[in-house]
Amino acid sequence: MKALVLAGGSGTRLRPITHTSAKQLVPVANKPVLFYGLEAIAAAGIRELGLVVGDTHAEIESAVGDGSAFGLQVTYLRQEAPLGLAHGVLIAREFLGDEDFVMYLGDNFVVGGINDLVDRFARERPAAQIMLTRVGDPRQFGVAELDASGRVVGLEEKPAQPKSDLALVGVYLFSPAVHEAVAELKPSGRGELEITDAIQWLIEAGLRVESSVISGYWKDTGNVTDMLEVNRLVLESVEPSVRGHVDDASELVGRVVVAEGAVVERSRIVGPVIIGHGARIRESYVGPFTSIGADCAVTGSEIEYSIVLPRASIAGVGRIESSLIGHDVEVTPAPNTPRAHRLVLGDHSKVQISS
């Protein structure tokens, strides 16, 4: 079995972060979300991986390399534009050959890995095997319709009127039969080749499509709210470790990781928190579910339930929470007078200002 990981999306829902960074490399607990998927694939015993990349290919190729750090052999597959999940399968046809494969969306996060899913597929060998989970607003996802016996009878991508609350999780397993389905597809109304249409083709062709409703944790980390929630979940399982310097005037409470080279002075850290290599925390409070990236500086400030990417600086700010702060950002207090807001914002930013 091979693996196909799709990492060519532009990440519009994470702008402005993704104007300058691949969405699959935004860190969760100071590790790119893409890496969790690669580790899950390797843990399932899969070694050959095709990685579909787009405009951010240079950054992703630099981060992943040849895949040996994950126990994988990576082949990069260029996608000229994000033309749909099934388009990713189409351009990977030569790489995949006639082997079964798992397709994993590079910005998805699945707790517990995919070992059981892969083992089940190997035993039963349907044409396709999908994972489903119940969601509050299925209009944002591919949606499955099941019959009374639990068999998949229909699939629809981002329907205006969903027939169920069962969304497709971003992990799929396919036999080579899917290639015939993909070859028959026409672009949807969104201008994309939809993987839901390919699976629907398999169903209508009389081939077996199996599904399982997962009770574990899954998130599509395509927006800030979900990124912060996944960060919270991962930090829940961290073990405390102090390899950097923490002075006697500081207090660490709960599960706190202070990486080698990090410095904590005259500060209070309430876990779960991870403080990256070379970060400097001085006269500050860092609250639960916060990841501070490498070489960041937090001085005279308070922050919690947030992700701070490498080399960002926060100084003299009373309180920050529920935030995603990008690489090399500087956050400082505004002058008290005149009473006005001075903003420099990237395209598609969202700002909440207290009146």
Automatic annotation (TrEMBL):
Class of the enzyme per the UniProt entry, highest EC level: transferase
Domain of life, per lineage: Bacteria
Molecular functions (GO terms): glucose-1-phosphate thymidylyltransferase activity
EC numbers: 2.7.7.24
Keywords linked to the UniProt accession: Nucleotidyltransferase, Transferase
Residues of the Nucleotidyl transferase domain: 2-235
InterPro entries for this protein: G1P_thy_trans_l, NTP_transferase_dom, Nucleotide-diphossugar_trans
Pfam families noted in UniProt: NTP_transferase
Protein name listed in UniProt: Glucose-1-phosphate thymidylyltransferase
The species this protein was found in: Nonomuraea jabiensis
